[in-house]
Design goal:
Blueprint lengths: L5 H12 L4 H11 L1 H5 L2 H6 L6 E2 L14 H18 L9 H22 L8 H8 L8 H11 L11 H4 L2 H23 L4 H23 L6 E6 L5 E7 L1 H8 L7 E5 L10 E5 L13 E3 L2 H13 L4 E5 L5 E2 L4 E2 L6 H5 L7 H6 L7 E11 L2 E8 L11 E5 H7 E7 L5 H9 L3 E3 L10
């Protein structure tokens, strides 16, 4: 092993002292921080929120202190259709707390099933350690929200409003994950003591009963039916009585969710393009829709998003929301901060290198609602976020095309926009199973 010597330290210090710009840069960084010192204000000014393809905007939602971005993004794509069809008021939202309740409930049961399946392995086994590290969390993926909606439907926010825990989930998650870990002990002991499958199933049912009670007290009791009233775009009043969540989805949204599929761009050697991938132990609803990705090259990936936007349909998409971001201004751009020049260090990595070496993965989901095309090529994208209207342009962000290339990993595309050969691959190919910790299994 190589030790750092006093001689090396003296040489490092001498090198800094001999750089005439070091004192000025040190003052700028220590006073303002790295990002403000490295910010290119001229570049920021070029990212104006004007787009050649610009779908009608709704007031943005706010996930507050919760990790429900993937859920907000999915429900926002649906509410756009509802508002356009029925002329609902600008502040209309579908209940993110309702789907959150059922996601928590189903994730716990999914965890129990994985614990039983791995009960013969030591707790130090990597898969078991992975399960126990975070038994459940707020995040998810497109296929997971589809599984929830297909089983439980959706409701307007008026039928199941926000609770303290749905908007500020850390306290609940700490307590709930502690319970699930304790439940894992009981389930592993049952399996390893030779209990029958009937006894194991009975124990899981008892634990799920406890979970339902805990969720009901924390988030509220989800409605079996509700009344829904509104005035349409022509001013006519409508009232629906005793609507079930499933019937509400069918009547007022009506999407065939099987037509919307996950497309990824993961340019790593272990994931050849034009193949499908699943992720081991990733899901929420046992017996529901599995997570399934079709990996495509960047040009095709991007072209599909443009086709769907140009047809007037929003696009759910997943990104790494950390790098090169000005949250307050609502700007996402690879040239926004020049840390390389500031520190005289080349920090660049390829997209594949970031994925392979743990520098990047999907952390956030939003909605594409516009794109600016110049000579048919995208230059910037309009993004509906779920962080409230105080950031960006009333909550909408501007993303440069270069940022899209580097940090966008997933888009949800309607099958009709795919070439026939890609639809056939998605439908017929057996997905390759990725490890639970693969970056394409990250939860937004």
């Amino acid at each position: 092993m190589s030790e750092i010597t006093q001689e090396q330290l003296a040489a490092f210090k001498k090198d800094v002292d001999e750089k005439p710009e070091a004192a000025i840069l040190r003052g700028a960084v220590t006073t303002n921080g790295i990002l403000k010192a490295a910010r290119d204000n001229q570049r920021a000014g070029e990212l104006t929120p004007v787009f050649s393809v610009d779908l009608e905007s709704s007031p943005v939602a706010n996930q507050l202190q919760s990790g429900r971005c993937w859920m907000f993004a999915a429900l926002n794509t649906m509410r756009h259709d509802m508002k356009a069809m029925y002329g609902l008021p600008g502040d209309f939202e579908l209940s993110q707390s309702y789907t959150f309740f059922w996601d928590k409930f189903e994730k716990a049961n999914y965890f129990y099933n994985n614990i039983v399946a791995t009960a013969d392995k030591a707790t130090t086994d990597r898969e078991v350690s992975f399960l126990l590290a975070t038994p459940q969390q707020d995040g998810g993926q497109w296929d997971m929200i589809v599984a929830i909606i297909e089983k439980y439907g959706v409701v307007p926010q008026s039928a199941f409003p926000e609770s303290q825990a749905s908007s500020h989930s850390a306290e609940f998650n700490r307590l709930f994950n502690g319970k699930l870990r304790k439940d894992a002990i009981a389930l592993r002991n049952l399996v390893n003591d030779g209990a029958s499958q009937a006894d194991i199933d009975a124990k899981i049912e008892a634990l799920n009963k406890e979970n339902y009670y805990m969720l009901s007290l924390t988030f509220g009791e989800p409605p079996l039916s509700f009344d829904f009233s509104f005035r349409d775009k022509d001013g006519e009043f409508h009232r629906e009585q005793s609507m079930t969540p499933q019937n509400f989805f069918k009547k007022y949204i009506g999407w065939d969710l099987s037509e919307y599929i996950s497309i990824i761009n993961a340019p790593t050697e272990d994931k050849p393009y034009n193949q499908t991938y699943g992720v081991k132990m990733l899901g929420s609803v046992v017996g529901g829709r599995d997570v399934k990705h079709l990996n495509l090259d960047l040009d095709t990936f991007k072209d599909l998003a443009i086709k769907q936007l140009s047809a007037g349909e929003n696009v759910w998409f997943g990104v790494d929301m950390g790098p090169k971001l000005d949250r307050v201004a609502g700007l996402m751009d690879t040239e926004l901060y020049d840390e390389d020049s500031l520190f005289d260090i080349d920090f660049s990595l390829t997209k594949a290198e970031r994925l392979d070496y743990g520098d990047s993965l999907m952390t956030h989901a939003m909605v594409l609602t516009g794109v600016d095309l110049v000579d048919g090529q995208p230059t910037k994208w309009k993004v509906e976020n779920s962080w409230g209207d105080k950031n960006g342009h009333k909550g909408y962000f501007t993303m440069s095309d270069e940022w899209f290339d580097q940090f966008t990993y997933q888009v949800v595309i309607k099958k009709e926009y795919l070439p026939e050969e890609l639809r056939d691959i998605f439908e017929s190919a057996t997905p390759k199973e990725l490890a639970p910790w693969d970056p394409m299994g990250a939860l937004a």
